[in-house]
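The authors assume throughout that readers already know how a fold can be written as discrete tokens. In essence, backbone conformation is discretised, so a fold becomes a row of integers matching the chain in length. A single example would do more here than another paragraph of explanation. For illustration, here is how one protein appears when written out as sequence plus structure tokens:

…
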Amino acid sequence: MKDTKTYRIHFSIIPLSALCICLMLSFLWCANVPRGTTLIPVTQPKSSAKAITMFMIVDHVACGVIDEDAKTIHVVVPYSADITSMAALFITTGARVSVDEATQYNSITRNNFTHPLLYTVWAENGSTAVYTVTVTRASASAKQLTSFSFSDPDAAGVINETAKTIEVALPCTGNVSTLKAYFSTTGARVTVGGTDQTSGISVNDFISPVTYRVHAADSTWTDYTVTVNMETSSVKDFTSFSILGIPGLIDNDLGTITVDVPPGTDVTDLTPMFTTTGKLVTVGGVNQESGATENDFRAPITYRVTACDDSTRDFTVTVTGAGSGNAYLTSLSVDPSFVFTPEFSNTVFAYTAASLCGITGTSVRPVAEDTNAAITVNGADVDSGAWSGQISLPDGATTEIGVVVRAQNGVTNTYSLTLTVAEIACDNACRDGDETDVNCGGSCPKCGNGMSCGAAEDCASGVCAGGICAPPECDDDIQNGAESDVDCGGGTCPDCAATLHCGTASDCISNVCTGGICQFPTCTDTKANSEGAHTETGPDCGGSCVAEGKACPIGTACLVGSDCIHGVCLPNGTCGPFECDDGVTNGNETDIDCGGGTCPDCAATLHCVTASDCISNVCSGGFCQFPTCSDSTHNNEGSHTESDVDCGGSCVGEGKPCSDGKICSSGTDCLSGHCNEGICESYVIATSGPGRSWSDGTYAVSCEAYRRPVVPYYRYEGSTGDGRYYIKPEASDPAILVYCDMTYDGGGWTLVMSHAEGIAPPAPTWDEAVNGGFSPDGYFDGLGNFSYLCGVKYWNSIGTTLRAEVGTGPLDITHRATFTFSLDPDSYYAINMSNPVIVAGGSLPGLYATHNGVPLSAHNADHDAFTGGNCSYSYGYTAWWYNNCWSGSFWGGGGGVTPYLNKPYWTGTTEANAYDYGALWIR
């Protein structure tokens, strides 16, 4: 009998949606209680246990992290949570829990968690343990899923916070198309496809991965990809099995189940109730449904359990105790003995035995499993274990024998035997008539070797020795058996010599059979034959055929080298090719062991046919030449090296480095001194000075193109850095002078707009704003007090990232943000920005918040949304993406309006939002 285990549980009932999440993550108490264990009250002895094993804030389904050694519990709740009044759910091994002497009730007692609280756990024996519980709010930007699970069936998710993925292994009995997820989060809300999700209520289809979006209080969000995988467990046990309410005895180790039913129970149609850890139960391939599928249990039945991974296990279910319903035999014997088809089994009821020979009658002996069962044989009563009366078996006829077993409760089984006695014939599988063995000898066909015989004429071999047919011999001086001539041929005796009879070539020593006569071998008969003085190692080659000019090709059998065309007989006994180390000129070689394309190239002074025969790759007058730096050949031999034709390597010492485009190993091979990925190259380097460009007189399209050139021959090195560069954004327009920031965030930023306090902003016409580079006199290499506007038609060519910044100066920035941007020439250069990233300052500029998607306006081109006039008139005649009219223009207000005087604005129109310096950069 299994031991009864005792468990003490302290909990209050709360909604399942909150409970199951923390219980799964905290190793739910029931995960450690074996199935079938009885929970009983505990009275003795008084325990000293006093631990908190699980802690959760019910209001927000937020689970605590317990440090048992430090006796601390930390819980993170959403940013918007009211921590002044929250209820906790906990699991403890103690008798009760208190805070400031007040007993705590699960999911009921509410506390103010503004400051850490001391939870005292009281053991049954009066001892205590104190836990410090700290609750903190998640930040406004918090947006994590901290737990994820399902309850039907139970399955906990594994969260990869780095990859933002959640993997859930679902039992194979689950339905992934209608699952309710239980989750906890530090965010403000959770959506799927725009639909708000409620833990434990919202249903989703997880046949494909589902994206859960967690929204933070600050309106940012994070996406988690949830993937559900069906479990592939190999578990396949029965956990319960009963019949008529009677539980069965399950032995999962042996794979047996026994159910003891009352005497007299009719077991022919019983319906079991069962549970299993597998996904499917079958009997004989038929699905079994607990409480619905009937079976006949008069004999043990095999139940097959299929696991989630499709592996199977068989259980033998035996019903005992009914007694009087057993109508089975344990054995059925016959006299004289013969073989049944099929082999006897108590649940197989029909048997046959055909072609019985020489049998005129038989008797049967049935043995019942239940000795109280009644047995009849062909209607006559027979005791269990006793022989029946003699039953006649007529020659050439079929006889039916019926054995009926009747149980005490009237259940009957009938076992039938169908016996056939063959007639005398030469094909009845019996030895009868004048046969000397089964179906042979006498008047029947002759017998084979090893079979019984009375005389030689009974045997196919014509040899009867000691009453047994024997095979012919190869030395009996007669032609018998398969022999093609006396004691030769036929595949069993030695091959026949020339002039003797043959049936096939294999009968002959020469392997040549013509007109039924073995022929003398020749070197033209296409056979590999030898006889007498004639020898061959291959078909018509080698041996004595060599004298006729017929040595063997590569791969043909050989004995010595002279058998082979190349004079090489390999150790494995086959002709081989010439070798490149045999010390002679053979094969394709142009000199000893070299040249010809198969052996190593030949050194200088050795014979050659083509240049490819030579190490130097130079063949002149039939001899390989020493390499030189003027032979118009890319060659290397000995101390002479070249990286390309007649240049590089040792040719550098002769004043022949390689020009651009030639192959090189290092810079010393090249005239330019530069070897880039194995090719000599000359570099074009950015110049220095107040108007930098490429040293070859060309211009990059942007500062980024100088900083990280895409052309391999161009290098950004030397006296570069921040300053003025000429760029050429449009191939059809002249180069323009701009200021480049080559240091911040990797550099490559092109200044396209700048304005400083105290300088009147530029007031360009539409044409000047679109096409020109507008700046006052005194434009210099620096970022002091000046205003600058690069023609907006160039902006798209310069880059795709816009950097906006304001502050007291270029080196003291208060606000900075970056965007992905573009200008639409077909919509009056409307600015379109996305992917905002706040680098400094904590807010987005009015350019993004108010003017995104708005066309550009100038004082002579009104494209703003203000119906009362042109916004540009009111603000210093500046060109800007005015909406109605503006918020955060980098040109300031202008027009003499005091709060707006010529100061760059980050956002709004108040003095607090005005700064001394503002700029727009593109990369």
Q: What stands out?
A: The CA atoms of residues 759 and 786 lie 7 Å apart. Residues 1-42, 776-781 have pLDDT under 50 and may be disordered. The chain is about 5% helix and 30% strand.
